[in-house]
Amino acid sequence: DFSQIQYNNYNSCCRICVITLAEAHPLLQNGKKIKSINYQISANCSRLQNKVSGKSKRGAQFLTELAPLCRISSSDGEEYTIYSCIRGRLIEVNENILNNPAILQEKPSTEGYIAVVLPKFEESKSITQGLLTQKEYEEVLLKR
After folding, report:
1. Is 111 part of any domain?
2. Which of 76, 94, 96, 116: CA 20 to 30 A from 107?
3. 121 half-sphere exposure, CB direction, 13 A CA radius
């Protein structure tokens, strides 16, 4: 899987996961061009319809690790499904990449993020323990 989770744990009350493309994702290699990004993951479910309100994030779509967030098509005809990779509530999707898909490739770790997910508080510690360090990630890539 080529999704990457950037985990921010500022303090015990604020924990978020920013879903981005991993640096080894095929869309970030070999000069591929993005044709389209679609948050409509099925006939009945669009991540753009996610409406969150209040401190308890009412209305947020619940995601499992295997929940698709979006589909990205490249100009060479390839389509990539980007998965959540984490259980939690979908806080927001990055609508800016719909109008400017190039930022997904130009700034994948910042402005080109895909989504923000809030894991359950009681699961957040096990999530951080399961994440790879940069060095571990690079070792995985070398084995591929």
Report:
1. yes
2. 76
3. 6
Q: Over the Cα atoms of the chain, what is R_g?
A: 15
Q: In Å, how far are 69, 71, 124 from 6, measured between CA atoms?
A: 16, 20, 13
pTM to 2 decimals?
A: 0.79
Give the pairing type, strands 62-63 and 88-93.
antiparallel
C-alpha to C-alpha distances, 39 to 45, 60, 65, 81, 94, nearest whole angstrom:
9, 15, 17, 10, 10
Each residue of 104-141: pLDDT tens digit? 999 988 899 999 998 876 666 666 666 777 777 777 77
Owner of token pair 């589909």: 71
Tally of domains in the chain? 1
Domain that holds residue 79: 6-143
Q: By three-state DSSP, how is residue 40 classified?
A: strand
Tokens found for residue 68:
């698709």
pLDDT digits (tens, 9 = 90+) for 58-87: 888 999 989 999 999 999 999 999 998 888
Does residue 123 sit within a domain? yes
Beta bridge partners of 42: 45
